[in-house]
Write a structure and sequence with these properties.
By secondary structure, the protein is α+β, with helices and mostly antiparallel strands. About 30% of the residues lie in helices and about 20% in strands. The protein has a 7-stranded antiparallel β-sheet with strand order 10-11-12-20-17-16-15, with no helix packed on it. Strand 15 (about 600) and strand 16 (about 605-610) form a beta hairpin. Helix 8 runs parallel beside helix 11 and helix 11 (about 255-265) packs parallel to helix 13 (about 315-320). It is globular, with a radius of gyration of 26 Å.
Amino acid sequence: MPQLTGFSDNAFRTREDVVTAALALLRPLTPYFSTNKGRIRLPISTGVHFDETAAQVEGFVRPLWAVATLLQFASSIASDDSVGAALADQIHEVTNPWISGLSAATDPESPEYWGAIDDMDQRMVEAEVVSFALLAEPEKLFNDRDQETQQNITAWLRGMNGKQMPPNNWRWFRVFSNLALIKVCGVPANQVMEELKADLAVLDSFYLEDGWSGDGPWLSTNEENEQEMEFQRSGRRDGIGKGRQVDYYSGSFAIQFSQLLFAKYAEDIDPDRVSRYRQQARDFGASFWRYFDAGGSAIPFGRSLTYRFSCGAFFAALAVSPVPDMPWPLSTPGQVKGFLLRHLRWWAEHSTDIFYPDGTLSIGWLYPNMYMSEDYNSPQSPYWCLKTLIAVSLAKDSEFWAAEEEPYPSFFQPQLSPAPRQILSNHPAGNHHFCLSPAQFVAWPMKATQAKYSKFEYSSTFAFSVPTGPLIQQIAPDCTLALSRDGAETWAVKWKCSEPEFPTVQFRTSTGLHSISAASVRWYPWGDKQVEVKTTLIPPTDRWPDWHVRIHHVRVNFFLRTLHTVEGGFASPSRRLKNGLKLPIIKSVNEDMTIGTEGLLEDAESVLILSSAGASGLSSQVAISWPSKSSSIKAQALKPDGNTNIACQRTLIPVIERDSIHGLETGDELVFITRVFAISASANCNRKIDRLADRWRDQPRVSIGEESHEGDCIFWTPELGLE
């Protein structure tokens, strides 16, 4: 599909560059306005769980993130700024339909009226964007309008109050509606303050630690035990309940983004809370930057990834709502600018397949993909990404735009981020930016929920895959362990699990004993708990910077006829870059091979995929079992369904298959040891890595219990496994 001129070819260096990108993203929408400009409907027939009118409201409203801030840019242009004046003329031309359409959209007598806001209504989401637009540009969008239009806008926003809302990031939408009612619409504060404070109290209850909030209530261990008791009573486990998810909604998509804007607009209303939110921004920023590599690529995981470059919206909010004394590496405007613009540049460089031929955004990550979509993603939904462009509202001589962009701070050793329960790694001696994610899950119905939250790893280069069906090729088991107890007909992967532990693991090298923080989690593939698994994830070390290790301690709690497992590494392109043919089969990794070499190597206990994306491989250390059970091990490159991966349409997944077919007794225990290899060809601005053959051959070894092992090794004892 064609790239989008003004975005795909954008250098993203200056304020004017970002304005140009915003205009480029808005222009393709204009043919799809309704007659009176109150709605936008793209010519795509996919639907959502809510009504079609609300979907078309999305189409009109979400671009207001850019419309309002572009109008601020236009109003700030100096008379002698010819470049700015030319852009201002384009802004007025492009944004005029939104200005005029707001009247028809909020008029109850208009055929294009959005409709009153009801309980649990999608219109609640869009009300935040309207409210932000009013706060950002009150003159053009409210004050310059006739009294009837002002009253209609006010009445529509007031419809938020008194309605049922889910206990998650949605509460921010009503907070901003009430903030706009007070600050712009002239509603007396005492009429809405009670609801505003109640919503803020709910939002504050989601706070975890280190600046992070969960996206809704957090499942406690006591509540987990209560759920087990309810299962014993009712025999059912399918109730919708709390989960443990900490994703981009916790930061850029919603919560931190909204907290920063609240700090900008509400300091006179709630100074104590604003002070607290600024401290949370400091704490959050200290770890959040690690989700981005030196080239601006973010680690995709979680839901709503069709919002794409909204992953970087926290940096945009930090630009327009500066927080003093931010920690390194967000301590100067130039550092914040670097993170924002690098992210936008990465998306420009990877935008070949994200636009339809008419220039509108598709649903997907790097190409159109309905398998990864949510049931709330209408064709208009992706324009939530425009919140990342709000820095265009800042004046040309602001500290942000006047600052020189500062480079990525440095590569980093594996670092635990406790709130999201993840270990982030961009090891200085390797080239792979990813996270170990042992224990997140969402407990309410969502497509591909296990793929989005419950895989062991998520990578900014080797993006994750989503299932298309129940068969193993359709499950696309990258970065997970799939188990079957019915002869490999049906499969289970990790979903709900315990809170993780972060034990210290020792490893020995020629320089002595060293320690590293690992992550471990207990989980049950099936609700009857016939099989219990404790997985320990050991991140890259200085000794093995391209490898990390998974150890699965498996216990059988009652007789099991057979057990089949398929464990996957990082999915990688399956086709040659130049001609689209299959990767060539290779017999070994030669000394002259480099990252970017293409080929497929398979042997009895390891598999390596070399592609244009880099190197992705798995290697199995001989499984340990107590008591000894006969089993077979096979390594291969699994070919999943097309379009399962969110970044590449055709992939292979390195997998280790283990089969026990002679029965497992109550109390039998097994240990699977898997070494995961990955080097990116594109991460960190195509950082070069040499000695591919040596790096692949030099595999970490794990010493089990009292087993003696000469040379360098990682120590794992049964005490680290199931008690």
